[in-house]
Design goal:
Blueprint: H1 4-16, H2 18-30, H3 39-52, E1 55-58, E2 67-71, E3 76-82, H4 96-117, E4 119-125, H5 134-140, E5 149-151, E6 154-156, E7 167-176, H6 192-206, E8 215-222, E9 233-242, H7 245-266, E10 269-274, H8 286-298, H9 306-309, H10 319-325, E11 328-329, E12 332-334, H11 345-350, H12 354-375, H13 378-391
Parallel strand pairs: 3-4, 3-5, 5-11, 6-12
Antiparallel strand pairs: 1-2, 2-4, 7-9, 7-10, 8-9
Helix pairs in contact: 1-4, 1-12, 2-3, 2-4, 3-4, 4-12, 6-7, 8-12
């Protein structure tokens, strides 16, 4: 079990830099930036740890708005994931400003005890979670190779210790037909917008046969330029989700049939492109999740019971890809939002509220305490290190 000294010291560090962390959260919130364009947010997230002496690797994994900041030289490498991308039109309605600031607070706190606990603290700036799969790209580039366990948190309307998520894939479907005058010679055209309509009708009919937990949602991103021109090009973007990757693959196969139906019915050509790397389902490490649950309770929070977590509506995150590779957690820390949920404008307001600020400070403390307990529990420390060694570390 962790000593009182370790837990107290990380809490003291977070308390001491609390004003800076809240300032960071508000600064990111005030200048929302979209996926792969988070240049200001990325720089802001690095600033405090750079001052503390972390070694900064800019453009980690070849991504301009990613970074890795390392402190310490212990064998237990802990990855702390910071997200900072926003949503189109509604800014930080997912509260990624809270994620980034709490991650920085966790890193600063763990740096204080890194030597005595045998830690290497790795703050990893991970862009493009909302769209683009930044963590999946960083995994592929080897940024997580030496990481034994990874932690982060996400704000939400309630506290969830062992949060889970759905597997996800996203595609762009382009139909190519032939333009013609809609009144003079419509019979010479091949209507790509009609192909979109047929595909969406097929998807609507498919919903009755979807397996439990499978979801799909999309929009038309291109549908023609003028009413008097038969559209020669149209485009759909669709997201598919399922409880696990195997179920997702089954849904993808059925959706491909729906997309093909639009082409067959109208005589169009069609092309399906992956919009981003697929997101695997989030599978929290049971031991780390239970430690975090206990830390929530100590902080006076009320995480939902484990049996409720299993049936809650879920979104998707590329942190799922990380938890398929190594032990990790992605708990949800509750923020008072007047009934708003994430991806609603009301949650944008909540993300910079006093309750959002509390989530930054308490979240950093709870994550840091969880890592302290991991470092000071020999069986669990050995477990995550053995898992890391078993998968191999690229050098």
């Amino acid at each position: 079990m962790p000593t009182a000294t370790g837990s107290t010291r990380v809490e003291d560090v977070v308390a001491a830099c609390g004003g800076d962390l809240i300032e960071l959260s508000h600064a990111i919130h005030a200048e929302p930036e979209l996926a792969f364009n988070e240049h200001r947010s990325c720089a802001k997230t690095q600033a405090l740890v750079a001052e503390r002496g972390f070694e900064i690797t800019a453009a980690a994994g070849g991504l301009d708005t990613a970074f890795r900041a390392d402190f310490g030289s212990g064998p237990l490498v802990i990855g702390i994931c910071a997200e900072y991308d926003a949503l189109p039109g509604i800014g930080h309605a997912c509260g990624h400003n809270i994620i980034a600031a709490s991650a920085v607070g966790t890193a600063l706190a763990l740096a204080e005890v890194a030597d005595e606990l045998g830690l290497t603290v790795a703050l990893i700036g991970t862009p493009a979670e909302e769209s683009g799969g930044g963590k999946a790209l960083l995994i592929e580039a080897g940024v997580f190779d030496d990481v034994a366990a990874a932690v982060m948190l996400h704000p939400g309307p309630i506290d969830i210790a062992a949060a889970r998520s759905l597997a996800l894939s996203e595609v762009i479907v382009t139909y190519t037909g032939r333009e013609s005058h809609a009144a003079v010679a419509p019979y010479l055209g091949i209507n790509a917008a009609d192909a979109v309509t047929v595909a969406q009708v097929a998807i609507g009919l498919l919903r009755q046969q979807m397996a439990p937990g499978q979801l799909t949602h999309g929009l038309v991103t291109e549908g023609g330029s003028a009413t008097n021109i038969i559209p020669g090009r149209a485009r759909l973007q669709y997201t598919m989700r399922a409880p696990h990757t195997d179920s997702l693959h089954g849904l993808e196969a059925k959706m491909r049939g729906c997309f093909a139906a639009g082409a067959v019915a109208t005589g169009c050509e069609h092309e399906i492109d992956e919009a981003a790397p697929p997101y695997a389902e989030l599978t929290p490490d049971p031991w780390l999740a239970e430690v975090f649950r206990d830390e929530m309770t100590k902080m006076g929070r009320n995480p939902v019971p484990a049996e409720v977590e299993a049936v809650m509506p879920l979104g998707s995150t590329d942190m799922g890809n990380v938890t398929q590779l190594l032990p990790g957690i992605h708990p949800v820390v509750g923020v008072e939002s007047n009934g708003a949920v994430i991806h609603q404008p009301g949650f944008t307001i909540a993300a910079a509220s006093s309750s959002g600020d509390r989530a930054v400070i308490e979240g950093a403390i709870m994550l840091a305490r969880t890592v302290v307990q991991l470092a000071q529990t020999p069986a669990e420390r050995d477990r995550v290190l053995e898992l890391r060694d078993r998968r191999g570390v690229r050098t």
